[in-house]
Design brief:
The chain is mainly beta. It is 12% helix and 46% strand. The strands form 2 sheets. It has a 7-stranded mixed beta sheet with strand order 10-6-5-1-2-13-14, with no helix packed on it.
């Protein structure tokens, strides 16, 4: 637990001080907020992303006696603040809005959708214990980036909150000049930086 609290403290410092270091609907896209998505076949889709894009990072797996604790961080990015998605990662514009959800659970990793649902229901800076099961933890904070940056991780897709129940869709909807296009995550070019999962 102490390690998790230290991790949360570091996240809050990063969010408030070091954020500059962080490397749809029918109709036409707003030309001032266009995003490009590079596909694995080399094609590029250009338009406006209106949803929350989710990246997942496995922070660690720790062992205490017979117990294993999995700690995971999710980053939710307002699509309007994304300039591009390509092999380098998710390129953020200045003043992009990010939500961070960190959670831990014993014996098995937290469920992605449950973590997002319960994490986004917390106020920024709030923490809860025993949310998923006894000994689990959940923390949520939000920040704004200062400069352009690139964020990587495991691209999960789009988290939808407007129409309960909330959903995690393994695709990104982007409004192009020809209308709304749904781009499956599996068709987006892979990031060069590989996601490290615990053994």
């Amino acid at each position: 637990m102490t390690r998790f609290l230290r991790l949360i403290g570091a996240m809050m410092i990063c969010g408030s001080i070091a954020s500059p270091l962080f490397r749809p609907v029918a109709g036409k896209a707003d030309q001032s907020t266009l995003t490009t998505i590079k596909l694995s076949n080399g094609e590029v889709v250009e338009g406006q992303i209106n949803g929350l894009i989710v990246l997942k990072e496995w922070l660690r797996k720790s062992e205490t006696g017979a117990k294993e604790t999995f700690t995971i961080e999710y980053t939710l990015i307002d699509g309007k603040g994304i300039e591009a998605i390509d092999s380098e990662g998710v390129h953020l514009g200045s003043n992009s809005t990010l939500d961070f959800i960190s959670c831990s659970q014993e014996n098995r990793p937290p469920d992605d959708l449950e973590a997002l649902q319960k994490g986004m229901s917390l106020a920024s800076g709030a923490m809860k214990f025993d949310v998923f099961s006894k000994g689990s933890t959940l923390f949520h904070t939000d920040v704004k980036t200062g400069n352009r940056s690139v964020k990587t991780g495991e691209l999960l897709g789009e988290f939808r909150m407007k129409d309960p129940p909330e959903k995690l869709i393994p695709a990104i909807e982007i409004t192009t000049e020809k209308g709304v296009v749904k781009v499956p995550v599996k068709e987006i070019v892979a990031f060069k930086k590989k996601v490290e999962r615990p053994d």
